[in-house]
Amino acid sequence: MATRNDFENSYENKWCPGCGNFAILDSMKDAFAAMGLSPETLLLISGIGQAAKTPHFMRCNMFHTLHGRALPVATGAKVANHDLNILVNSGDGDCYGEGGNHFLNAIRRNVNITLLVHNNKIYGLTKGQASPTTDMGMVTKMQRHGVISESFNPLAVALAMKCGFVARGFSGDKKQLSGLIQDAMTFKGFAMIDILQPCVTFNKVNTFAWFKERVYDLAATGYAPDDYLKAFEVSQEWEEKIPTGIIFKKQRPAFTEKIEGLGSKTLISQTWNPEKIQTVLN
Fold it and tell me: Which among 13, 81, 138, 180 has most CB atoms closer than 10 A?
């Protein structure tokens, strides 16, 4: 039986004490153990940022790629071996900024992967400038007179793109977050969880206490995540009340299911004839 220890490694962690990433890492290990996964069946892919360091602290297959480019790499990996459990760990800047175009296209294709966005509403690795999700008016080390752009709403954008699994987690509720990760990984299609996590060094506004006062669990209200228009309404809640849990869930054919050449066999397990390729090249 799988345990958290199966995913432990000895690499020293350099996150700031109190960083929300620690709780996300713990929730991932709890989820993997609860699902009975083994390290060799798991692939973690990330880009650049503090969130992108997550695979370094996990015993499993991993690929650390370029800023904002984790999702296309994950797409290629899933097409090559659709039997792998693939998770992408990304930050709000990495995913919604540098990787914004890939975020949209991964949803459009409905690639069967799980995206965990560590959303601290700031750029943490590069020392505190505004990210796409930073609230308008917030003063940062770079935006000395306050952010003048509207904040990016990842949940609403994902819903507009017909994402089949849209959820929000909070690093302050590891039990809920672990359950959300399990639900996302068992969903056949693109599943995203935007995870609110405090940056204790560079974001002094959206602190742990700030989130704790505002977040509430949708499941506790009797909310059913099957109403598309209601999900849009919920995605607009912020400031005074911030919903967490599954916002929307609806199954549709996944990307690899629509590729006739794959069938029941993975691409890497299929035989190929190099002479046929040479004929084409000639």
Answer: 180
